[in-house]
Amino acid sequence: MSGNSFGKLFKITTFGESHGVAIGVIIDGCPAGLTIDIDFIQSELDKRKPGQSKITTQRKESDLVQILSGTFEGKSTGTPISLLIPNEDQRSKDYGHNVDVYRPSHADYTYDAKYGIRDHRGGGRSSARETAARVAAGAIAKLLLKEKGIEIFAHVTAVGQINAPNFNSNNLAEALAVREENIVRCADPATANQMIDFIDSVRKDGDTVGGKVGCIIKNCPVGLGEPVFDKLHADLGKAMLSINAVHGFEYGSGFAGSEMRGSEHNDVFLAGDKPKTLTNYSGGIQGGISNGMDITFITAFKPVATIMHNQQTINAAGEAAEIKGKGRHDPCVVPRAVIIVEAMAALVLADHLLRQRSNRL
Amino acid sequence: MSGNSFGKLFKITTFGESHGVAIGVIIDGCPAGLTIDIDFIQSELDKRKPGQSKITTQRKESDLVQILSGTFEGKSTGTPISLLIPNEDQRSKDYGHNVDVYRPSHADYTYDAKYGIRDHRGGGRSSARETAARVAAGAIAKLLLKEKGIEIFAHVTAVGQINAPNFNSNNLAEALAVREENIVRCADPATANQMIDFIDSVRKDGDTVGGKVGCIIKNCPVGLGEPVFDKLHADLGKAMLSINAVHGFEYGSGFAGSEMRGSEHNDVFLAGDKPKTLTNYSGGIQGGISNGMDITFITAFKPVATIMHNQQTINAAGEAAEIKGKGRHDPCVVPRAVIIVEAMAALVLADHLLRQRSNRL
Amino acid sequence: MSGNSFGKLFKITTFGESHGVAIGVIIDGCPAGLTIDIDFIQSELDKRKPGQSKITTQRKESDLVQILSGTFEGKSTGTPISLLIPNEDQRSKDYGHNVDVYRPSHADYTYDAKYGIRDHRGGGRSSARETAARVAAGAIAKLLLKEKGIEIFAHVTAVGQINAPNFNSNNLAEALAVREENIVRCADPATANQMIDFIDSVRKDGDTVGGKVGCIIKNCPVGLGEPVFDKLHADLGKAMLSINAVHGFEYGSGFAGSEMRGSEHNDVFLAGDKPKTLTNYSGGIQGGISNGMDITFITAFKPVATIMHNQQTINAAGEAAEIKGKGRHDPCVVPRAVIIVEAMAALVLADHLLRQRSNRL
Amino acid sequence: MSGNSFGKLFKITTFGESHGVAIGVIIDGCPAGLTIDIDFIQSELDKRKPGQSKITTQRKESDLVQILSGTFEGKSTGTPISLLIPNEDQRSKDYGHNVDVYRPSHADYTYDAKYGIRDHRGGGRSSARETAARVAAGAIAKLLLKEKGIEIFAHVTAVGQINAPNFNSNNLAEALAVREENIVRCADPATANQMIDFIDSVRKDGDTVGGKVGCIIKNCPVGLGEPVFDKLHADLGKAMLSINAVHGFEYGSGFAGSEMRGSEHNDVFLAGDKPKTLTNYSGGIQGGISNGMDITFITAFKPVATIMHNQQTINAAGEAAEIKGKGRHDPCVVPRAVIIVEAMAALVLADHLLRQRSNRL
């Protein structure tokens, strides 16, 4: 049973390979009556697309999106929305030398072993190019969330060992503006500069580096999340872990919380109109259900596997081989991954918004 | 849409509340012909049950499991296997004082807000008692994995800030024996003693503490995991994050990997009969698919919310209230969580073993 | 991938074999706040249970239902509702002679061939006893529909070649009373008498006979049904075809409609407050979506395969064998099937009621 | 929850409206290594496309299919296969007069009522044009079945009251050749001529007529079908009932079987190498599982709702309105529906072939 769909009620299915004709996505379950702003979808794709700056891959793709179905006179009709992004920059020859060679820490070997056949051009289906389809679908989820007043904001909180200070703005629109002013997409300009310099030096070494993306969700209604397995943070975690290169996920107090005592970790409720808590170690989620506080989580990305160094490896016959570092490479994915994190978070929330509707008479 | 099922082909659905008649699980999709060893299922439940030692909750439940369907003459028949665990120790009166009061960092408020009605006795459905059903189902998954030679081993790697040394045994049977000799279930006896002393002191303070559980899977066949969303680590992550009190998940290099460079993080392939890698920062999974190396991951648990201190909180009317620390409490869940982690990992692998069967002609 | 679940949002999973410990069902997705009237559930089971009259099987089962989870103080809580019906009359010895012999037109051979193992006692999982679990779950679905004013009524419209006149009552409560006054459950008393006499004569011959059950649903809201695959009538059809012994399903004009011309078959809309149609060949469903008119369908049941005659057959080795007609048999299932048809229809409608909630912003 | 997907392991999701940019389908779960013969897919589409003969609609669509993903060097790779069919003949002006008027026995009213918005051009999503996507996906399912030796054959068995004699050929290739020699797609040439004349006369009346399509499946392996809900015939039934204009489904003895006695209806097993039955009233399926005999079923289609007569109806405001009979119409769908029936049957079988793989250790 294949795994190319995500979500239950707001459900997406992506398709497409790195160097095929096109990539795309079907969104099945978008409620009718939503204004589908194609310019917004495109602007989200533009934030993810390669070639944006000196610290991302130089591969050029304009990533222009088309709507094939599911809208009428600018609004969703309740039928499947199909979005298509044709592939343009199919420099397959760059990849010809990898036909039989397994690149270290890539998916070449496992795809071959699993399926017995593999589109070896640029990673095929395992390429992060597939995430463009997620970003397009996530943009529609964001439009739905916006109707409900829900805001999502992600930014780069770490590159290598350079960490941004804790994010504590209540004005996400402002934070977004700040974030978009620097090419690394960190909400703290001073840290951003350090990160950019570091990535640039790593790039010059022909090397890559990992990083972290933090995400905050404001104005999430109370009640989202479906125990006992589809807890809101469990679905967020799966969503993040499904993104290429992600190796870790934590929400609220996260790994640090495992070192704490209950007496310091408990979030005391405060009397008032609407239940709030004094602290938010719960990260806005209790028992797997949103409690109305800010939802916070962090996603950790490993360094990109494609480096410009020669590496020892094996070929499909199991024999020793060398892989040459040439072509183009992406020194650090987190600046672009910010948009993918937001998109996946939006998809999870849109799905749970709809799921929540069936819980009461 | 409710979330009480887990898995697609090896699928479980759990039911039951902490103080209801019984808890249980239906396993739909267990292949026919598997010998169902009820003694093994019971022995797994015995490792999870409360009241095992001075460092776990003193609640007494014998957790005796019954098989209601799906087996014939000791073997699975391919029809749904239903397992029932009657509840015994229903001291509901202990919980009478919490009818209208929201316990901090519990699910009382969110359940009320979500459903408009709540079984307030002992956490109801949100109680970790539900995980007994998972352990019972996981035991059957383990029996299936055993037929395929796959081994799963988890142990406590941290309690608060006390960390076990890296686990590096290749003999999981031996490690299991060592682990079961200490009540905290750490594979390193020296660290175990420190952890036990620490938990005991925390318990005497009426407080609780978090911790971490590490898991290793050996002899997993190459090819498990269904990109692009149901990557093996994404499903493992969701499984772990669905366990009560879990706040973080990482696999392979994890969060530390995000600080590394590609040139150090890449796992170089070694020539030989069967592809292996020199290092295993990938944690046995590449592109979301198992590569035959050991699968490794860590799950972080927050401290239990029930403490023996009085705490300020609110009631259902939003008014200030105080919650008294009385009754029984569990100072640290990780010694029992070890079994739950193994069970959920077994369920994920059993599911992916079956899913893998449809990928080739 | 097993097939023991039905429904997507109001989802049931049944378990249990004819001569096992118990049969039962989990309902996952029942909205919170519904009053769960266990007496009503039991009364529905009483209408399905064997041994009701001279024209049904004499097997005795009291079919007493227990609620194990999912309710609190008489109301659903939004968590899984588990219903258990212990088996009582396990006269397995009656079935001992069939261990290796394949009964004609039963599922003995196909279960053996599919799973390689079979609980041969009384049909095991393939026994119509499993439908008791459906009736119990369907009773809860009916309680939900009642809250929304939706009424479902089924009755026997044919036994062999004896057909009831067209049903044209608008008072379903009255029709139900009439139906329950005769043991064959036909809404027309005169036809009922003919049917009863006929079944009784068939029974005396040690034979069985098929029949038809008609169903009408009143006050169904406009808009239920999810094109293009989960059309309301497609889900009703699957629900009916999943009942033991069903060989045909038609809705609205049905098979007869295939002989008509469009000019006579089209249902002309009538001006008024609320769209209605002059005729109802559409059977209350257009484009797979309910249109507010009565939903009507007919389900055809083959004659029961167990007869009291000796029959030639084969054993598991493929050798000729004879099967003796002895024990108890059910000359005609339709009187009891009426309740199963209603239950499955209720489950489909409850599911689509919830599904409909996510179609608009 | 929307209903645009069909199948569980061999799963399709269709998209597109009658007068949108394109229609298409994603197939997720096609095993890797299958040769994808695009000429065969196109030839299947050519059999469904409009404008083939005088007895079908004159709408012109070339229905040229493109493969966007999921294949490499002519073979499936195990990743989602996306097929696109651009729309050409978008004479929307023909439909301008129906903006606010509900056509009798169409889905105009129900779509409006369900979604609150409707693409009124030519039926939008409710148009039978969507079935082209099914035929394309079904062609790939057929290629998979062919690898396993399974053959599917459908033909028109009735138009109005004209019935073809029982089909009794064992040579499906030959029957296919005969069927394709007449424009009504009946396997009996003499009956075909009568049907054609009748449809032509109906067409000249500006009217339409219903009909039936029979289907036979040969060489289906024993063991397909997943009790208790996903019985093979239940999934076939749902598949057929999801096709536009279908009002009835029966398999094996069908409705006629409900008039029979068990002693005549039972299929006696014959001794031999491989279990066979003397008769086949079971239609190749027992207990919901294929038994190796021919699978047979019949699907009943109502007459097309679009007729060339003026009809009384209502508009969106509920006021009386008249609908003019103009434009193009399709006097009888069954000649083209034959291909859709085969496609849906192929999809069901492909899905169950894969599902069957997880039933044994």
Automatic annotation (TrEMBL), chains A, B, C, D:
Comment on bound cofactor: Reduced FMN (FMNH(2)).
Task of the protein: This reaction introduces a second double bond into the aromatic ring system.
Entry cofactors: FMNH2
Subunit structure, as described in the record: Homotetramer.
Entry's Gene Ontology molecular function annotations: chorismate synthase activity; FMN binding
Organism: Pedobacter frigiditerrae
Database matches in HAMAP family: Chorismate_synth (MF_00300)
UniProt protein name: Chorismate synthase
Residues the record lists as binding NADP(+): 48, 54
GO process annotations (BP): amino acid biosynthetic process; aromatic amino acid family biosynthetic process; chorismate biosynthetic process
Keywords (A to Z) from UniProt: Amino-acid biosynthesis, Aromatic amino acid biosynthesis, FAD, Flavoprotein, FMN, Lyase, NADP
E.C. no: 4.2.3.5
Pfam families: Chorismate_synt (PF01264)
Top-level taxon in the UniProt lineage: Bacteria
Entries under InterPro entries matching the protein: Chorismate_synth, Chorismate_synth_AroC_sf, Chorismate_synthase_CS
EC main group: lyase
Signal peptide: none
Protein family according to the UniProt entry: Belongs to the chorismate synthase family.
Listed pathway(s): Metabolic intermediate biosynthesis; chorismate biosynthesis; chorismate from D-erythrose 4-phosphate and phosphoenolpyruvate: step 7/7
Higher taxonomy: Bacteria, Pseudomonadati, Bacteroidota, Sphingobacteriia, Sphingobacteriales
GO CC annotation, single: cytosol
Annotated positions binding FMN: 125-127, 244-245, 287, 302-306, 328
